[in-house]
Every structure is written in structure tokens, then in C-alpha cells.
Amino acid sequence: MTPSKIIRSKRRTLSISINDNAELIVRAPHKLSIDKIHDFIIEKEKWLNKQKKIVNKRLSGSFLDKDMALYLGSLFPIKTAQCQSNKLTFNGEEFLAGSSEQEIISLSLKKWYKNKFKEVAIPRLTYFADKYNISVNQVRIKDQKTLWGSCSSRNNINLNYLLIMAPMYVIDYVIIHELVHTIHKNHSANFWKTVESMMPNFKEAKSWLKEFGYKLRKL
Ligand SMILES: [Zn+2]
Q1: Among the listed residues 207, 151, 160, the one whose alpha carbon sits nearest the alpha carbon of residue 179
Q2: Residue 140, Cβ neighbours under 10 Å: how many?
């Protein structure tokens, strides 16, 4: 198993875990060699596979579970709060729904997702566009059943708000992918080279979408 992330710090011991996206996360002291880390992973392979299975099983259910909602790659509980409006809020740990009716919760969650995606994605797009000197015509946030993003011949970019359920690096990847389409209107080798130069780990994001993307569309 290859780690998705190795976090180095001042800690003294090595720790490995499987996060909510079934990725292997390693926490290691600054000086510990990669070989030692790999040895440790091999030693724990059996346990890791078991953990991964559990998380994958959880992930294989619909992300819009009756009482859980996905936000930036993590699942949060939805609780019903007694209040006048049907508004849905998020306090950093849980969603508070103003109604216990499933249909109302679902609608208000969609609304919340859409607003949140705008809030999260637009500044990221502006950041990458400025950083790489890319000019974009118009950016629209859409409900799309089939596409995560698109870029027109006139450099209008559309982004799918359902991506708010994906981890941040996946959102970044889709944004970068569409920004690169303003330069290359195809998926040529040069296109992918440019994507990689902006995001060296873009393949991880691609495989996340391949593996879990269809679940986001169930909303
Ligand atoms: Zn493309």
C-alpha cells in the first residue's frame, strides 16, 4: 500500500492510519527514512487492509445518508435543530437542519452545497488563474449530471457544485484541468504535462473521482 500523504513533524514515533477517504496517511519523525516507513507499512499491511475495507464499505453507501452529509471529503452528522426556518447551517462539526423532513433537508443541503462551493471554488480558481497568468472569461457554477467541469472555446468555465463533497485537492484538480483547457483545447500529452506542472499529484485526484465520483452524483 502506498501512502497518500506522509506528514513529517517533530514527533518521535511513526504512526499510520486510514482516513475517511480510505487513504493511507503516515505521520513520521523528520529524519526517519522512506525505507523504514515502507517496512513498517508492510508489517502492518494486514491491519491496514482491514481498516481500508471498513472505510470503503462505509463509502460505498450513498453519501447522502439519512443522517450524514459529505463536505470536503469528510462525513458530518445532520442533526435536527428546533428553529423557525427550514434553513440548514453548519457549525464546523455538524449540520443543523431546521426541519426533520427528509425532502426539506435534502433541498436545503443542496442549496448549502451550492453556496459553499461558490465560496470555496471561485477564490481557488482566481488564485490559480493569477498564479499562472491565465485569463478566463466567465465562471459558472452548475448542476451537471455528467460533467465535473467544462471549458468552452470562448474560455467560459463551468464547474459542478457537487464537487463540494470531494476533498479540496480534487476540487483544485478540476479547476486546474479546466484552466489548462484555456491553453490546450484537448487532452494531448502537452495538456497533461501542463496539468502536472501545476499539480504534481493530479493523478491522485483523478483516481479519487474515478473511484468515488459517481456517488456524488447521487445527490
Ligand atoms: Zn478536459
Answers
A1: 151
A2: 9
Centre of ligand 1 to C-alpha 180, Å, is 8
Q: How far is CA 33 from the centre of its chain?
A: 29
Q: In angstroms, what is the span from residue 187 Cα to ligand 1's centroid?
A: 6
pTM for the predicted model, two decimal places: 0.70
Domain 68-216: homologous superfamily in CATH: Metalloproteases ("zincins"), catalytic domain (3.30.2010.10)
Nearest residue to 166 via CA among 78, 71, 95: 71
| CA–CA gap between residue 164 and residue 99 (Å, rounded) | 22
The rounded distance, in Å, linking the Cα atoms of 59 and 53 is 10
CA of 69 to the centre of ligand 1 (A): 28
Distance 90 CA to ligand 1 centre (A): 33
Specify the pLDDT at position 20.
Answer: 79
Place of cell 431546521: 98
Is residue 8 very low, low, confident or very high in pLDDT (cuts 50, 70, 90)?
Answer: very high
Distance CA 40, CA 94 (A): 35
Provide the residue ranges of all domains of the chain, joining segments of one domain with +.
Answer: 5-60, 68-216
